[in-house]
Each structure stands twice: as C-alpha cells, then as structure tokens.
Amino acid sequence: MFRPRLLPEKSFPSYAYLPGKYPHPVRNPLGHSYRSDPVTVAVGEALGSDVFRWGIDLFNHGYYWEAHEAWEPLWQAAKQSAQHRLLFKGLILLAAAGVKIREGKRAAAARHATRAAGLFRQVVSPGGLFEKALGITPAALAEHAQAIVAYPVVLREPKPAQPEPVFDFILAPVSESV
C-alpha cells in the first residue's frame, strides 16, 4: 500500500520505539527525541498544524509510539473542545494499539483498540472537519479499531528497530486547507 508523506522534509526517527527494546526516546540521553522542545498548538489550528500532520506521517509509516507522542500535546490543548479531545484521544489509543501489536501483546492491543473505537463512535465532526483532516470518518476509524479485536494482526517476523505499519488503512487529509 502506498503511504504518502505529508511532511517529506522531516526525517523519520532513527528507530521505531518499542518499550524495553531501545532507549526511551525522550527520557534516555541516547533516545531519538531526547531534549526535544515541547510543542504548543491552539485547538482551532490543530487539525491543519504540522504537529498533527507529523503525527499522521508517523502513524502511517509504523512509528506508533512517536505518533502517540506527536498527538499528545494536541489532546492536552483540546480541553475546551470535547469533540477534538475525543478524536485525539482515540488516535492516541489507536497508536498505542499499534505499539502493542508490534510487541505481540494481543490482549493489550485489543484493550487499546476497543477504547479507541468507543471514543471514535462518540465523535461528532462539525461540518465534516475531522473527515477532511483524516481522510476517513470517525465511524470508519471505529470500525478499523474494532477489527483489530475481531481479527488480530499477526506479524511475520517483528523487526524491533524498523517501523512496521500494522494497519490496513492510512490517514490522508482530503485537502491542504484543513
């Protein structure tokens, strides 16, 4: 499956983090994101921000822990917008499910995916805003998340340092003016 880049000028991290396999990206001095500057984005700008788009690039290319970290500040900033908060938390949990799938932890992946599906089902997208930003409806994301539970992903030979996309869909904004 072709996986486009939204921010091709940004280099991917040197490894896709899996807990216990490589240095923690932000806490360990050898981590790929050690001493990264904190990010702040206003909720109204979040879906069109490079922070959000970087999270999509990371997610689509199998850097699930890193995608989770990219979206975390957006979720934290969304305290005044319940719908944005639900969407970002769902994306974070879906990324966490990706990490657990890569670790071979099916039960944990299913828990995260089930929680993500539940959140996506609660999302009401004002004027199709979220669909444009993701290229997929929150309801369809809920179905994809639930499919992880019904049909667990089994990796052939996990490659700990290499990113490995585990989902059969991609996130792709519909237009540049989100």
Provide key terms for this protein.
178 residues, globular, mainly alpha, 7 helices
Description:
By secondary structure, the chain is an all-alpha fold. The protein is about 50% helix and about 0% strand. It has helices spanning about 45, 50-60, 65-75, 80-105, 105-120, 130-135, 140-150. α3 (about 65-75) packs antiparallel against α4 (about 80-105), α4 (about 80-105) runs antiparallel to α5 (about 105-120) and α5 runs antiparallel to α7. The chain is globular, with a radius of gyration of 15 Å. The relative contact order is 0.16.
What does this entry show, briefly?
The protein is mostly helical and 178 residues long. It has helices at residues 43-46, 50-60, 64-77, 82-103, 106-122, 129-134, 138-150. The mean pLDDT is 88.
The major beta sheet can be summarized as: none
What percent of the residues sit in helical stretches (DSSP H or I)?
40-55%
**Could you spell the SSE succession in H and E letters?**
HHHHHHH
Q: Total strand count, please? A: 0
- What Rg do the Cα atoms give? 15 Å
Unreliable segments of 5+ consecutive residues: none
Tally of individual helices: 7
Quickly give the structural class: mainly alpha
| % residues in beta strands | under 5%
